[in-house]
Design brief:
Elements: H1 2-11, E1 16-19, H2 27-38, E2 42-46, E3 65-71, E4 89-92, E5 96-99, E6 104-107, H3 110-123, H4 125-128, H5 133-142, E7 144-145, E8 160-161
Parallel strand pairs: 1-2, 2-3, 3-4
Antiparallel strand pairs: 5-6, 7-8
Helix pairs in contact: 1-2
């Protein structure tokens, strides 16, 4: 079903995709994401909720994706977020108020953080026109607030994603 969804998105010329799911390595998902990346799709993916000592989760751990971890309102790491060299950036993901179809509630996880990053990329004409994860990753690194150890690290990646301009500041 995931591969069918990627194919459908590609057929409909969707170039930026949020994947708020994570699991063990899957060769078919790997090949599907690689094929989508070759055709210009950028996938922003939740890093997973396996904890700091847990294994990398996929598709976020694939180099063709942007892996997003979660932080709380005090910029502390989400305690169930994995760590590793594959983590690219962080975004709010702990106790985020989310409006659902039936009711609103607080939710936590890297799956909540990933849409923040997707929205920042989608809102930027420059970034949304980029056709590979490496370019988007570099752009995101330029607009992050460094957290933790100076420079990119296994806990926060490049840091907390910031919006490049205040919301509503359209001149």
């Amino acid at each position: 079903a995931i591969l069918q969804a990627i194919d459908w998105l590609q057929a409909n010329e969707v170039r930026l995709v949020n994947v708020s799911l994570a699991g063990p390595y899957n060769k078919l998902i790997d090949r599907g994401v690689q094929a989508a990346a070759r055709r210009g799709m950028v996938v922003i993916a939740a890093a997973g909720n396996t904890g700091p000592d847990g294994p990398p989760r996929y598709p976020a751990a694939l180099r063709q994706t942007i892996a997003v971890t979660a932080v709380d309102a005090n910029l502390r790491p989400y305690d169930a977020a994995p760590t590793g060299a594959h983590i690219d950036v962080a975004a709010p993901g702990v106790d985020v108020f989310v409006q659902g179809a039936e009711a609103a509630r607080y939710m936590t996880g890297t799956s909540i953080a990933a849409p923040f990053v997707t929205a920042v990329v989608a809102a930027s004409p420059e970034a949304s026109a980029m056709q590979d994860a490496e370019a988007v990753r570099a752009w995101l690194a330029e607009i992050t607030l460094d957290l933790g150890e100076p420079g990119p690290d296994a806990l926060f990646g490049a840091g907390l994603v910031q919006t490049p301009a205040p919301c509503g500041d359209r001149g």
